[in-house]
Specification:
The protein is an alpha/beta fold and about 450 residues long. It folds into 2 domains: about 55-65 and about 315-455, Aspartate Aminotransferase, domain 1; about 75-310, 3-Layer(aba) Sandwich (Aspartate Aminotransferase, domain 2), CATH 3.40.640.10. The protein has helices spanning about 10-20, 30, 35-50, 70-80, 90-105, 120-130, 145-150, 170-185, 205-220, 275-290, 300-305, 310-340, 360-365, 370-380, 415-430, 435, 440-455; strands at about 55, 115, 135-140, 155-160, 190-195, 220-225, 250-255, 270, 350, 385, 385-390, 400-405. The protein binds 4'-deoxy-4'-aminopyridoxal-5'-phosphate (PMP).
């Protein structure tokens, strides 16, 4: 202890006097990262609602169906298992995920290729820490990829996908982006793709995926395929992993958050190639994981083993929920198209990505120049929460918004959680007759009415 000060209190006071903000000085990196826009809008809506605003929430993409009862029981039974799990995950879960991917993606996987962690977000972050090189990101791209890349010290090379063609990624455009990036001193070695896609709801078709995978192989690029929405394809386009065409160079990520409606359980996985390089990446990932989160929650891993066990009842429930998301999302898409709003046709997940650029001049007269202005305007004037295209790395003047449709699946306003759960289970049971019955979804109707009124007002 420094003897100049007679007490700890005096030392503390002196520190505060001399450094103003001490002892909490922040790094420049921490100050360059904002709260993820999806979480920020969710919190903004919660405080608006607490203040009495009846806000229509199209800002947060959270799975809306209740947990499958088999998973609920599995978690309850696993609760006493309080010990730490192995860093890469419990063997039964790694085995179940390997078997699941082998069957669903039609590529053989073994359990030593699988690592589980607290959400696929944490695994994507860690992957970007261990993989060398800069990153090619198709635009628009999910909110967290670019901040994660920046935190990993990587340059982000945005590659515009074609908004008029299901956000198709063109290999020529990728090659141009790579050449330009190299001229500017970058070293692009990773391409991160996401299909079904957040924010657009688009999915790559077979030919595009094959072309992308071939391009990546020819150019020595590692593919990260974020397949968190894979099970939520609406039915008119099949989910195909690029790993089918480029298994030695593709890393798949996924988890429980969307299809199994358990985002709060924080359980994700990464599946690495069955090559020597894949094994080395696994060692590096486990080393980082061991220093950061040690292991994902043991009871959650045990319950997740049941989720990935391909149990018929769980599989059927996931498939039915995908169809309901598809139905509701398509209904809102049809409304937007009837209003002449440009919007890619949704193929999977629970998002729409409309483009309001035809109304640019009238919106300007209301003070709206950017997608962020538009999102603010809709929240302040129409009590409707959306996310602006800028959150997805789009140019500010691209007047696009992401609408999350998962909250619109509520069959009726529920008085209690039990009632809400029962209504959603009933909806899943009746999914097969959805198109004949066309039941009312009050929040969907509200969203349809709102967009109609908003566009007519322009
Ligand atoms: N990727 C995408 C495209 C997502 O939308 C999300 C969640 N919003 C994630 C990854 C993260 O999922 P997890 O809950 O597994 O961390």
């Amino acid at each position: 202890m420094n003897m100049q000060y007679s007490s700890k209190q005096q030392l503390r006071e002196q520190l505060v006097r001399t450094s103003g903000q001490a002892p909490l000085t922040l790094t420049p990196t921490s100050q360059s990262i904002m709260t993820s826009p999806t979480l920020a809008i969710h919190e903004a809506v919660a405080s608006r609602r607490a203040a009495g605003h009846d806000t229509l929430h199209l800002g947060f993409g959270e799975a809306s169906f209740p947990l499958h009862p088999l998973l609920k029981t599995a978690l309850a039974e696993a609760a006493p298992h309080t010990g730490y799990a192995p860093v890469a995950g419990i063997p039964a879960l790694r085995q179940a995920i390997a078997a699941y991917l082998t069957s669903k993606r039609q590529i053989p996987f073994t359990s030593d290729q699988i690592i589980v962690g607290p959400g696929s977000k944490a695994l994507l972050f860690t992957l970007l820490q261990v993989l060398d090189g800069d990153i090619l990101l198709p635009l628009p791209s999910w909110v967290s990829y670019a901040p994660m890349a920046h935190l990993a010290g990587k340059r982000v090379i945005g590659v515009q996908a074609d908004p008029h063609d299901h956000h198709r990624l063109n290999p020529d455009r990728l090659s141009q982006a790579v050449s330009q990036a190299r001229q500017e001193g970058a070293h692009p070695r990773i391409l991160l793709v996401n299909s079904p896609h957040n924010p657009t709801g688009s999915m790559f078709d077979h030919a595009t995926l094959e072309a992308l995978a071939c391009w990546a192989r020819d150019n020595g690029i590692t593919l990260i395929s974020d397949e968190i929405y894979a099970e939520l394809a609406h039915g008119w386009r099949e989910h195909i992993s690029p790993a089918r065409f480029y298994p030695e160079g593709t890393i798949i990520t996924g988890g429980l958050s969307k299809a199994f409606a358990a985002g709060g359980w924080r359980l994700g996985f990464a599946a690495l190639p069955s090559t020597e390089a894949g094994a080395r990446a696994m060692v590096a990932l486990c080393a980082l994981a061991s220093e950061i989160w040690s292991a994902a929650s043991t009871p959650v891993q045990e319950a997740a083993t049941v989720a990935f066990s391909q149990h018929e009842a769980i599989e059927s429930s996931v498939q039915r929920s995908a169809h309901v998301y598809g139905y509701v999302t398509d209904q809102l898409y049809q409304t937007l198209r009837q209003l002449d709003v440009l919007c890619p046709r949704p193929a999977g997940g629970f998002y729409l990505y409309p483009d309001f650029s035809p109304w640019r001049s009238v919106l300007r007269s209301r003070g709206v120049e950017t997608s962020q202005d538009l999102a603010h305007y809709l929240l302040a004037e129409w009590d409707t929460a959306t996310l602006p295209g800028t959150a997805f790395q789009e140019e500010p003047t691209a007047l696009r918004l992401r609408l999350a449709t998962s909250a619109l699946c509520e069959p009726r306003p529920a008085v209690s959680d039990e009632e809400r759960e029962a209504a959603l289970f009933h909806l899943l049971d009746q999914e097969e007759t959805l198109f004949e019955r066309r039941p009312a979804f009050p929040l969907l109707e509200r969203a349809q009415t709102f967009w109609t009124a908003f566009i007519r007002d322009l």
